[in-house]
Design a protein that fits this description.
The protein is mainly alpha-helical. The chain has one domain. It has helices at residues 8-15, 39-47, 75-96; strands spanning 22-24, 54-56. The chain has a two-stranded parallel sheet. Helix 2 (39-47) crosses helix 3 (75-96).
């Protein structure tokens, strides 16, 4: 929902309750948090009607030229960083949630 829709928020709201699977990649096809998508907003919007898995789907760029600026990043490392980033976002959302009833 980054290219076809004019409003991601509206598209998620219209599809609420019918979203079966969410694949997660940033706008540049890299792991979440490495592009320009506001993931905290995306997760906040999804929370209104989706409570299942997020599937990581991204491409790790490979520069095999002799003058590559840095060593290649492993796929496992990219999965770990993307997962950690999303967990941090979800923890931030949980902290925003209103507290339940307090015991007197």
């Amino acid at each position: 929902m980054n290219i076809e829709e004019t409003s991601r928020k509206d598209a998620i709201a219209v599809a609420a309750g019918r979203i079966a699977d969410v694949h997660v990649a940033d706008n540049n096809r890299r792991p979440s948090g490495e592009g320009s998508i506001g993931w905290l907003d995306v997760l906040r919007e999804l929370a209104a009607g989706y409570d299942s898995y997020l599937t990581l789907e991204f491409v790790t760029p490979v520069d095999r030229t002799p003058l590559a600026p840095s060593p290649e990043r492993s796929f496992d490392e990219a999965v770990r960083s993307s997962s950690a980033f999303l967990r941090d976002c979800m923890a931030e959302l949980a902290a925003e949630a209103p507290a339940g009833p307090t015991a007197l």
